[in-house]
Write a structure and sequence with these properties.
This protein is of the alpha/beta class. The chain folds into 2 domains: 76 residues, 3-Layer(aba) Sandwich (Aminopeptidase); 91 residues, Cytidine Deaminase, domain 2, CATH 3.40.140. Helices cover 34% and strands 24% of the residues. Strands 5-4-8-9 form a 4-stranded mixed β-sheet, sandwiched between helices. Helix 4 runs parallel beside helix 5.
Length: 195
């Protein structure tokens, strides 16, 4: 297997800083993982972005590098927690199709014990998943929370959105359409069957 692996972010475009420095940890862990994969027989090439000065440049640089590689699998290393927490903070995942995305959201929803959940995939292939937020000072549907996570992470457009266990009247659909009028939006029941 041929694997192209990059450390997330760039020398001048750092990720989360708090408990740890995400860029430093990405660059520390990437070669360790690559060496384990090589020991298992994989052919692995790695990349660190040392030139980009903006998030857009960083995404273009890393995506361009990955697209130039002959590979069977792409991996990018990230550490997403920016503060101490006992709860998961999320993950970025590339999915090949919306059906797989719906299945994964449904499984995550079941694990979290939530009645619904959503995910959006941005134009760079990053996925943001979320369950509804119900606080005394803030209330968001899962889809609104997923769109907010994407936008706050620098997403400039969306390719697709999946809402599991939701309704076609979800306010998050308007948020998806504001950012990406032509994005695919799939609404399913809690089992992942399209409505």
């Amino acid at each position: 297997m041929r694997i192209a692996m990059s450390s997330g972010h760039a020398l001048h475009v750092q990720g989360a800083v708090g408990i740890l420095n995400e860029l430093s940890e990405n660059r520390r862990v990437t070669p360790i993982i690559a060496n384990y994969m090589r020991a298992g027989g994989a052919q692995v090439v790695t990349f660190d972005d040392n030139t980009s000065r903006t998030v857009a440049q960083n995404l273009d640089t890393i995506n361009s590098w990955h697209n130039r590689q002959t590979r069977d699998l792409d991996i990018q290393v990230h550490f997403n927690a920016f503060s101490r927490t006992e709860a998961p903070r999320g993950a970025e995942v590339l999915h090949r199709d919306q059906a797989a995305l719906a299945t994964r959201v449904s499984a995550a929803m079941a694990r979290a014990g939530a009645g619904s959940a959503a995910a959006v995939r941005d134009v760079d292939g990053r996925t943001y998943a979320a369950a509804p937020v119900t606080l005394s000072t803030l209330e968001l549907t899962g889809l609104q929370a997923a769109v907010a996570a994407a936008v706050s992470s620098g997403a400039i457009g969306l390719e697709a959105a999946v809402l599991v266990g939701g309704s076609v009247d979800d306010l998050g659909i308007a948020a998806v359409r504001e950012l990406a009028p032509t994005a695919v939006v799939i609404v399913t029941d809690s089992a992942g069957s399209p409505l």
